[in-house]
Amino acid sequence: MSNIRKEIINSAYDRAYYLIQNDDMHKRFELIRQLILSDEVLNNKEKSEVLKRFDDDYDYFKVLKNDGTERICENCQEKCLAKNYCERCIRNYLFSNFSSWSSGNPDVDNLIKKCQMESIIPYMIVEWIPFNNLQNIVLLSNIGCSKIYSAFWTDGNYCKWDSKEMKLIKAGPCKVILRYLQNDEKANRDWIEEVLALF
Questions:
Q1: Packed helices 44-65 and 6-19: angle between N→C axes, nearest 10 degrees
Q2: Cα 80 from chain centroid?
Q3: Residue 92, Cα to own-chain centre: how many angstroms?
Q4: What is the spatial distance between Cα 111 and Cα 130, in angstroms, rounded to a whole number?
Q5: Using CB atoms within 10 A of its CB, is residue 132 exposed (0-12), middle (13-18) or buried (19+)?
Q6: Which domain holds residue 130?
Q7: 112 and 177: one domain?
Q8: Cα gap 27→128, rounded to integer Å
Q9: Beta-carbon count within 10 A of 12 CB
Q10: Within a domain: 78
């Protein structure tokens, strides 16, 4: 049984992006696939791992640019662009869970819901993290009206869609950066506008 060498996988991934330059994303990802499959340094498990990363990237760009061959989702029977998940099923799943969480601030809740309904890939979904799901909270700095902390999120972010169970799967514990806002309406409004500008 062959082992997976993370450093070799990361190197192959970076090298393929560097070597394969093509303005047509579909051709670029096909050329990348061919390059990885012909790479004699990688064993079969490593090739599969690198190709999975590129498939995730390809899905992201197809959905982001709304460009690619659509397929019919086996679950919702609607058209979708991604190969490894269905954008509509993910959004429906998130929507069905809106009532299961709240930040306590309707403006923040609405912002998170808006971001979730515009989500394009499982591991980039904006979520509300309950305080009791955070550990090892450390103050990093005080900036104006807010304080910046680091912490470990016990559940972690979503990482992939399980089409059999029809749910998003969590990645497990990960480090996050927290921003604590003072109870100041103007500061909160400024923060929400700052976040909206990112989307």
A1: 50
A2: 17
A3: 17
A4: 16
A5: exposed
A6: 106-198
A7: yes
A8: 38
A9: 23
A10: no
Q: 59-109, pLDDT tens digit by residue?
A: 999 999 999 999 999 999 999 999 999 999 999 999 999 999 998 888 889
Q: Classify residue 85: in a domain, yes or no.
A: no
Q: Are 160 and 138 in contact (CB under 8 A)?
A: no
Pick the closest to residue 8 from 44, 55, 57, 58 (CA basis). Answer: 44
Distance CA 126, CA 157 (A): 9
Pairing of strands 174-181, 167-170: unpaired
Model's pTM, two decimal places? 0.80
> How far is C-alpha 130 from the geometric centre of its chain's CA atoms?
19
Domain end point (choices 15, 35, 65): 65
Number of domain units in the chain:
2
